[in-house]
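User: Can you predict the 3D structure of Multifunctional fusion protein? Sequence below.
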Amino acid sequence: MQNKGLIKFFAILFALVSIYQLSFTFVSNKVASDAKTLSGGNSEKEIKYLDSIGKETVFNLGFTNFTYNEVKDKQINKGLDLEGGINVILQISVKDILKGLSNNSKNPVFNKSLADATANQKGNQTYIDAFFDAFEANSNGTVKLASPDIFANRSLQGDGGVDFQMTDAQVKKVIKRKVDESVESAFGVLRKRIDKFGVTQPNIQKLGESGRILVELPGAKDVDRIKKLLQSTAQLEFWETYKVDEIGTFLMAANEALKKTETNKVAVKATPKDSISALLTDGKDSAASKKGNNPLLDKIIAQGGGPVLGLFSPKDTAVVSGYLKRADIRILLSGDQRYAKFVWGKPTTITDAKAKNKEIDAVELYALKGNRDNIPAMGGGVVTDAKDTFDQSGKPAVSMQMNNQGAKSWEELTGRAYTQKSNIAIVLDNIVYSAPGVSSGPISGGRSEISGTFDVTETKDLANVLRAGKLPAAADIVQSEVVGPSLGQEAITYGTTSAIVGLLLVSLWMLVYYGKAGWYANIALAVNLLFLFGILASLGAVLTLPGIAGIVLTMGTAVDANIIIYERAKEELRSGKTLGESVIASYSWKGAMRSIVDANVTHILIGTVLFVFGSGPIKGFATTLLIGIITSLFTSIFIARIFIDKNIAGKNDLSFVTNFSKNFFTNFHYDFLKVKKWTYLFSSIVVIVSIISLFTNGLDQGVDFVGGRTFQVRFEKPIEPETVKAELAKAFEGSAEVKIFGNNNQLKITTKYKVQDHGTKADEDVNKLLYANLKQHFSASMTYDKFVNAYEGKQLGVVMASKVGPTVAEDIKTNAYWAVLGAMLIVFLYLFISFRKWQYGLGAIAAVAHDVIFVLGIYSLCYKFMPFGMEIDQHFIAAILTVIGYSMNDTVIVFDRVREFLDGKTKGNFGEIVNKSINSTMSRTINTSLTMIGVLLIMFIFGGESIRGFIFAMLVGIVVGTYSSLFIATPVLVDTISASDKELIEKQHLES
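Assistant: Sure. Here are the predicted structure tokens for Multifunctional fusion protein:
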């Protein structure tokens, strides 16, 4: 090997750099472990301690030192499935942004296009492109985007804006830029909120141009709180309010009107004798106050007063809101009241005197003084600072400071409220947080306070969102995943176990099969792992459970290049060459290098497709796979070679065999093409049965593909899934699928209930329904918070929850189709270019298509009775692509040998040469397949329930891929080569 010294230098340099990069991970883990010990398991204390030492030196190398924050930034981060925490994808409402840019245009073409874009948006299509398509179809050239009542409005005029003379194409560029700016603004606001939230190593990133933002909060535990923090638009407004005696006449009239259209089917308690009752009855009993006879007023559960019209049960708020929005009811409002805006307050609890002082939930109703333009008396954009504090009564509150303009407006507003003895409602995201009166004259200086029924955590979050600013549009959670820390720790244990056992298995097999040469391959494998982890650390990569699977899989493929080289060296030795000559020949381009390059290029192409189309953990799997391929090539070709050359220069006793393996495949002469009719028949039957099953039995599509919510729930004792399914089907309106997941005390619950409803309320409703229906299966100590939220040592309740919205599911499904088809097309083109004949590519594609259909068929036929999950999701697509890569790899090795024999002097017709090619590569095929199957079996057994279906797909695929490369790819190649080509081959290779 030339430049051996240079190779050694770079190998040592890479090793030192890798050790240096990994040292930060070791130090960071040590500090985090100490923090956990010092905090006694209290996560808040742990975070505070780590924050306090952020700027302290924790790693001193003598010539330089690093603070904890610097060390933390350089470590390998653990993904959500290993660390536990919350991962959400937020969809910034481009529809809302477009409405804002149009100044809430009333143009019918514009508004119909918005609705059509929402209904007809295709997978992987951005909303703005769907809107432009819909607008073009609806306007048909009659209305321009640059119309004054659409985008050529006053707010968009000026430099870089929209001119009414612009074409639609020009306007599209401006609008796309404005939308991107709004998403960028939302990204900045969310980053500020998250930075102040108090979790270690938060991650936030924009996802292309989709308007989606990924937020990962490792270690975060309070699910509902975080979702509120992320989705709050922080639209702060100050409104003047009506008092109950001002609006009471309308409520009375509305109640009377509703009697004609509404029928109360259930008798309700009599309306409390508050100010509204007084207006209705003048203190006397009447038909209006009888039970069940007042559609609106009977829903009041406690009296109001001042700006509070009354208190209602949360379950009635939707119905009451519907009443107050009806045109036939709003027409009863007179004068300026016709612009009144009815808004609910922050949920609270009250004491129900008629139910033995039981605490019940209640929501206050307010009437805000609206106007023709629906603009508040004062906007929240004037707030420059906010902080959590305590009011005069010692209750948690939020104080705000306004700018000069805001201070002036605030003084005028409070002055008017003082004079009129009215109240000012402080409204955040359309919810009234408080509605104080002004008792001491106009308030100057621009300082105000929000008080109400808060706890300290709520005031901290409220101050946080106000400081960070408002989002330019609604942010809906379209995909989320919550993983408890105990589940993350289990994943680490499973992943570590499978990695160690897999490493030992591969290493042992190499020793048993190749002896001393196996030792050299194992040293190369160890160096490969060092390089792999070093590169992951230097890239700041996030390690996930599929990522660990990728690393374990890399161990199986890492020795593949060594196996190809060693098998070639054995052939050269058997042909009579010396050890030195055999090694040189095996490392040459005509020896093993061409096959290694072709096989790994196809693997890299597949990995690249997986990286491009994958997301989250799958991207992590692709990352480790790609890095592993590159490091494996370097270590297998160069590191092992250093030791082999040293042996040649010294003892010269390498034979690449042991007593156990020395006679394996030495006289292997099987006629693979002779049985092709039977293999064609067998494969045809399998393919036909698989396709029939796919059409009749279908597949168990996971929420990744169809949308929905998934909960992994652990119980105190074994439980029947059918029992739970029956209980949840009623609550979730028939949409409930329940399966045992791993142990029989753990269930996987899937539902589509409210998956299209955005906002924190829908998520809370589903969580509360789940708890209400399952709490009977737990002890009395299982509260809602314990059931839903994560905490250290959690073993019962929801240990994992995920949600995938329909639009995201459609995108994932579209990506999956393109990934599989794209991978097959790319590899076909590569093989066509490399082998100069399309028949090679066709043979490989036929084998791959056979493998994919085979695996899909197995999943379709078996998913209903297998004891582990066999869902078709992103993990499954990653497995399919890995199978494609391996199948190509195996086929290319055979095809390279066919090409080599055709270029040489091997005797025989084309079929005989192909048979010899297969037989001569059998040792490599079996060896690589066995190491891969062994590693996958280890992961299947020890890798944990969450990736068992993923590993099973690869396991089946590797077995089928080995079969297809031998019995499908090569026969197809032989059968499609033209008669003229075969005739030419026979002239060159048949003995005269």
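The two ends are 40 Å apart (CA to CA). The chain has five domains: 4-75, 90-200, 236-262+296-469, 484-697+810-991, 708-801.
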